[in-house]
Design a protein that fits this description.
Layout (H helix, E strand, L loop, with lengths): L1 E10 L3 E11 L4 E5 L6 H5 L9 E6 L2 E2 L5 H7 E4 L12 H11 L4 H14 L15 H14 L4 E5 L7 H13 L3 E5 L3 H7 L2 E6 L2 E7 H7 L4
Parallel strand pairs: 3-8, 3-9, 6-7, 7-8
Antiparallel strand pairs: 1-2, 1-4, 4-5, 9-10
Helix pairs in contact: 3-4, 3-5, 4-5
Bound molecules: adenosine-5'-diphosphate and magnesium ion.
The site of magnesium ion has 3 residues, from helix 1.
Length: 225
């Protein structure tokens, strides 16, 4: 599903950030990306849908991530950014959730009922005509997730999805993710959330994978609870 070989990356002014990452993920597998702030987790994840392109090889669903495959890759990989504000930008939640489909050339007549059904399944129906910016953090995150899931990705990447959520919001998100059958890569500092939503974990340290194993094993080993 995801295959990364010897991935290295540096920002224009940063020095090396990713230093030879090897990573694989099977179809349907849920993996937690753990590790301290600044260890390169977000930078790594941004390579999986080609927002960043470093040196090395990134293959997603059999497609090598490269400038000419970006459109294909982004249909396979759904990305819920750490800040939902970066993802929501239209005047209403419904329009925002439909945007990706419309952008793919799907007609409004077809996109609208699909978007409405997705809103329903994420308990967002009452917010369909509201301005996304006026929603609570949890509602914003669900709206962003709705738009991403509507594209029917094969891999779902979530960057610190529990940030700004209250405990019931976290529980609800966790339950929702456990029901999804697609592969998930979840960056989080919330160990309990990681344990609930993933079976395997990868621990980042200074741009390298310091360890991988079962989520429980990695949390114990790094005292990461
Ligand atoms: N746009 C950028 N330009 C320069 N350096 C960056 C940029 N984004 C992140 N970095 C640096 O890259 C390192 C890894 O950041 P990041 O991938 O966000 O880590 P994490 O997600 O694990 O907290 C940090 O040292 C950070 O300062
Ligand atoms: Mg990050």
């Amino acid at each position: 599903m995801i295959q990364v070989r010897d991935l290295c990356y540096e920002y224009a002014d940063s020095g090396p950030i990713l230093r030879g990452i090897h990573f694989t993920q099977a179809p349907g597998e849920s993996v937690a990306l753990l590790g301290p702030n600044g260890s390169g987790k977000t930078t790594f994840a941004l390579h999986l849908n080609g927002i960043l392109q470093g040196v090395g090889e990134v293959v997603v669903c059999g497609i090598r991530v490269a400038p000419e495959t970006l459109e294909q890759v982004r249909r396979k990989v759904g990305f819920v950014f750490q800040s939902s504000e970066n993802q929501l930008f239209l005047p209403t939640v419904l329009e925002d959730v439909m945007f990706g489909l419309l952008n793919q050339g799907v007609s409004v007549t077809e996109a609208r009922p699909r978007a409405e059904a997705m809103l329903e399944s994420l308990h967002l129906t009452p917010y369909a005509d509201r301005n996304p910016f006026h929603l609570s953090a949890g509602e914003k995150r669900r709206a962003a997730l709705a738009g991403v899931l509507l594209m029917e990705p094969e891999v779902l990447i979530l960057d610190e999805p529990t940030t700004f959520l209250d405990p019931p919001g976290i529980r609800e998100l966790s339950a929702m993710l456990r029901k999804l059958e697609i592969a998930q890569l979840i960056i989080t500092h919330d160990s309990r959330f990681a344990l609930e939503t993933t079976t395997r974990a990868v621990f980042f340290e200074k741009g390298q994978i310091a360890a991988e194993g079962s989520t429980q094993e990695i949390i114990d080993r790094f005292d990461w609870l």
